[in-house]
Amino acid sequence: MKVGLCLSGGGSRGYAHIGAIRALTEAGIKIDIVNGTSIGAIIGGIYALYQDVDKMTDLVKQVTSSVNVNHFNLFRHSKEGPPFLQNWLTEAVCDIAALRKSIQSHNNNLKALRILFDEKRFEDTKIPFSAVSMDIMTGKTVVIKRGKLIDGVLASASLPGIFPPVARGKKLLVDGYVLANIPVPELRQQGTDFIISIGLVNAPSKEHENGIDIIYYIESLKQKQLDKWAIAESNFHINIDMSKFDSSHFENYLVAIERGYKATQKVIPLLKNKLEKADA
Amino acid sequence: MPEPITLVLGGTGVKGIASIGVLQSLHSHGIKIKKIVAAGISALISAQFALGEEPNLLTDEFTSFFKDNNHSLWGLEQLTGLLMSRRRRVVGSFSYFLRERSYCSANFKGNSALSWETVEPQITRLFGYKTFSDLKIPLAMSVIDLKSGTSVLLEKGTLHYGMKASIAFPGILPPVTVGNMELVSSTIYCELPLDGITKKDSPVLTIDMPSTFSGSNPQTLLEVISIVDDIRSRAIKEKLLAKTDYLFLLEGMKKFRWGDYHQIPQIVTQARNETDRLLKRTALP
Fold this sequence. Notes:
The structure holds 2 protein chains of 2 kinds. Chain A is of the alpha/beta class. Chain A has helices at 16-26, 39-50, 53-66, 83-99, 107-117, 149-156, 177-180, 184-188, 211-231, 253-279; strands at 3-7, 33-37, 129-135, 140-144, 166-168, 171-175, 194-201, 236-241.
């Protein structure tokens, strides 16, 4: 029986995937194939490449200490700062929104991904791995299985609006979370018999200060619906509650890893039971 | 004796006005409607129809409303160009920049680009304070409650609030507070209000007024975001369409955009002709 691990997107909350993988490894559950979206693709990629949880944690530590991992969050200082700074930032963002394709460039992302993947390719991973992205020219989900890991993972984690889309031939790729935040159907298509999917639950704020918040909230409702449909196709879904986790700070990775570990450990007996039944 | 149907009407933005043509056509073919579930501008038109009035009276109302307010709507029509970047580069790129920028700025500083001042008096003038119980055909208006994060069907109370909530398109008009709820239009989530459809509504006829998918290289952040939002709404619509028994796909509506308010009569005629044609081809229950 081919067992697959499906890792969802969710920004810095996704470090919880490392904890989940640790719990699965300790329980002796063998994973034959892995896929992921966004941060899920980053963690899935290093898992498939090294198959070593300690090394994964070390790499994350290395990334957080050498790259400015919070650069994507433009408003990170403005809340504490004087109001004029916030106004100025708002105006700047409006200019950017109407003139450029994204707020940030890929520079910092590439630096971080280079530490994780170097020049390694999808073909070099110890178990099959795929990164899930979205082509905004066709509106279709794209599964990347070949080429340099750094390119595939970058396309899967290019959050639209924040980072520019990645051009690949005629395709224009952005973060796969758009349609496949929990890419279960994409893993099923690769002939996986039993899928263990990992979701990162957060409660989007219902409070809104402006129209952008309202639009963002409606998007989170769409996300919830699409996630629900994806989870329904999984054989075993693990929900990691990340609702009280400050996801704007990537340096909180140890907290996230711990939560992922505990949540997964709790459901291991149930998972083993299901796996045995499925194998029988 | 034909079985009465539940009619599902939606459509993004101005395109919802096409419901006028759809209702005219269904009416002239003697299709019996037991209930209408509507979202967006379709909710206003359905209310007019359910009150027993001629829906086509609204065509002129809408046309003149947009004509009179062309200025204060600061070119909603051009903003639809969001997904028409190729054309934009040729004409009026500076104006396009200003529209995008002011849309963004208005939504950062407040709840929406427009206020209710322009729209509300028109609704009051047309419908006064009639209630859902004045309707001859039951009508449910589909909206989203921001407080609970769920879609809600409005079937009671004053029509006025339901209509306002139905057209409270996020980003364009502010949310509407009704009791404990804070309501916005559900068309940005899914242009067809299929969420609240249940088995007892069967047989269900859904009218789909599709839009063309962008398929062009976006030039600005707002374009990227709106393409992404559109992709998701399409995916949700596709999945929810499984709930309908009969689907009328008005292919010809693809040539109109959500802000094409200078083409209202054409939108209505197109929808009527296409519904006529589909009714001839399809055997409803």
